[in-house]
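Revision sheet: C-alpha cells.
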Amino acid sequence: MAAAPSKKEAICSYILQQIALGNLRAGDKLPSEKQLCGQFGVSRIVAVQALNLLAQEDVAFRHPGRGSFVAADALR
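Predicted:
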C-alpha cells in the first residue's frame, strides 16, 4: 500500500495539474507562499519547499520579492 503524498507533494501536484489543464501558462504567477499556506493548511516552510522543488525541476522560476512564475518549458 502506497503512503499518502506529503503536503509538499500535494502542492506540487496541484500546480502541475493547473499547468496541464492550461489554467497556468508560461510566465503566469504562481500562488504566493501565503496563499498556498491557507489553501493547503501548511506552514510557510512547506510552501517554500514545494516552490523550490518546482524550481529545481524547471517547472517554475523564483524571483525574490516578486514571486514564483511558471517556466517557459514547464511540461517538456
